[in-house]
Task: structure prediction
Amino acid sequence: MNLYNYNAFLTEALIQTKEEFNQKDHEAEFFMLFSNLEYVESKELKIIASVPSKFIYERLVSGKHIVELEKKLYELSGQKIKLELIISQKKNTETKSSNSIADNSAASPKKETSKKVDEKPRHPQLNPRYTFENFVKGANNEFALNGSIAVSRNPGKAYNPVLIYGGVGLGKTHLMQSIGNEIYKNTDSKIICITAEDFTNEFMQALNTGTTQKFKNKYRQADVLLIDDIHFLLGKEETQQELFYTFEALYNNNKQMVFTCDRPAKELKTMTERLRNRFERGLNVDLQVPQYETRRAILEKKVNMEHLNVESDVLDLIAKNISTNVRDLESALTTIQAYEELMGKHVTLEIAQKQLKNMIADTKDSSITIETIQKVIANQYGLSVAELKGKSRKKSVIIPRHYAIYLSKELTEYSTTEIGSEFGGRDHTTALNSLKKVEEMKITDPSTEQILSLLTQKIKEFKNK
Result:
């Protein structure tokens, strides 16, 4: 494969990436991250490209963008081509280079580049930005943070395993990888960090190629095993069985394990009981939606880390109006930074209000329906909507029904009479009874608030699909 093809494959990969960003209404983010990405040179199964600033470099390498681009390169070329980024040293950044890949044009490659080199090589599976120093502590995550720090200082002995759970974008992956980065920095431990999806895919490939022993040796010889999003394993019995035996081997040898999940272990209804019990054996900590003060502190931390010039009232606007999760806060900040870099204008409060109006309106959208609530909660508890609305008095049905009725009252404008009618023709007194039951549960069982928060998050995500 000649160098021209490498360039062409990268161009096509970016074009496809742009289409995906546009479909998700993230066009501004695409242009901010990729419009100045330039092809530099190619080596054997490697493409080197440059970006104009440390801000963009860190955004790209800290997320999944590079991995996604490499996947597209593989799909296009049939070869595993690595993409390496460097930061351009060009003096003049006012105009875009004529060989911007995202614009699908060509020119001579740039040679004058630099690259930051760490004293210790970066762990290939750990994001260097995910550290305890970069994690903003708040009332919603203090216990989880302290527990994670304790684990990193005494892996395999302090708390084992650790399960960090909570809704999307609340910092589960950040905390898990912070543990890994801290252990990696201070020891020579063999650390494996992987998503449950990749673990499953790798296991299935081992089955298909007859290399299961190699797979087992890889994971059972680890000193630290970090697995993200274990809820992906629901319904995958073979993978669950393999993880169980891996768990036993590591646990019996005092090897540290950390898992993340979108719900408490007891809510993993289709997980095998013995594996679910293993997840509950150690330290289980939850991450809740951050309050205003924590959201504001998160934004300030991001601004300081990336040396951004964002006005205080713009940060207030974001923190007060976007209360869903950390990921949405970062997305808003990215939008502000993209506007400033692309338009060459400092973002005032008025500009920020215009640029973020759709994001702010989305967080205040009241178009959630009872039908959506019923579908999400039924799916979460392995029920059908008919069962949720039916007359069953089983606890496994009654509790989810109480949650569904309670959230129908919290998230919609329907009256208790209307809500009761939507749940199998019940009257308003039945709906009121469910509201009362949930309020009592919130007092007697602290996990109820977390469950309701998680369900609310999933309902909003489902609505926006």
